[in-house]
Amino acid sequence: MPNIVVCMFRKKTTSESRIIELAGHELRLYIIRERRSNQRFGLSSKGLIVRIPIMTSTYELDRILNDAFQWAEKALTLKPMRPVNFRKLKADDRLHFFDGVRIVKFSGLSATSDCVSWKARLNIEKVLQIEGQEPVSFEGYEILSKVVRKAVKNHYRNTLKQRVRQWNNHLELGGVKGFRLGYTTSRWGSCQHSKGKIALSTRLTLCPLWVIDAVIVHELCHLVHNNHSKAFWALLDEKYPRYHEADRWIKEHGTKCIL
Questions:
Q1: What is the Cβ-side half-sphere exposure of residue 75, based on CA atoms within 13 angstroms?
Q2: Backbone angle region of 39, left / alpha / beta, with phi > 0 → left and psi within -120 to 50 → alpha
Q3: Domain ranges of the chain
């Protein structure tokens, strides 16, 4: 484990990030040293996060990690989840975007090591074309996912921006002064009430169009009510009654909508 210089006033520092395998899952382990008196474990779409006191010794860290691995294996066994926030794209995978299915195609030959100079594009109908070889490692898939996310964002940004504009003109809930499309795992959308800015997650491109519309109208309603009050839900129910169905769809299928 590398030596770490800890500043007395720094609240926390990530001391290590590596790939591990637990309960049949390949995932990232994050060890975070911070100002705390005890240890804490957590599982999320990012991986296994282990928080420890700043001055934890190497010997004590080994014991803590052993406890963390046992806890995580039990958690993954009792409650199946996806402890990885990206999709391991393989040749001929089918991605169901809101405007149709696209087949993943690689232009390079198979190899025994990763090529990190991938390029991706969606301008060919029904194809997600990736220039380069199919990854062979966790890190390779992780890097490729970022390339694909950027390509998907660039391809669909204007379409979704126009969708927001159309709904805004139709509902007349307030002035939209900015739009952003970016890959997020914690939120499907957000609204900066004071600035009139709407943001959507790229993950929405893997949802049906009527679900995307539900999220758009939800955020537009926040231009009127900057909260989740009864008045907000009443307005949303008035403007897009199908949001109930969209909410159920996201709860059932949302974890699969990753790139």
A1: 17
A2: beta
A3: 12-78, 94-256
CB of 152 closer than 8 Å to CB of 119 = no
- Measured CA to CA in angstroms, residue 93 lies from 20, 86, 233 at distances of 25, 14, 38
What is 94-256's CATH number? Answer: 3.30.2010.10
Q: Provide the CA 64 distance to its chain's centre, in angstroms.
A: 28
Global pTM value: 0.76
In 10 A of CB 196, how many CB atoms?
Answer: 15
At 191-227, the pLDDT tens digits run: 988 888 999 999 999 999 999 999 999 999 999 999 9
Q: What is the largest CA-CA distance in the chain?
A: 63
CB burial of 15-26 (b: ≥16 within 10 Å; e: otherwise) equals beeeebebeebe
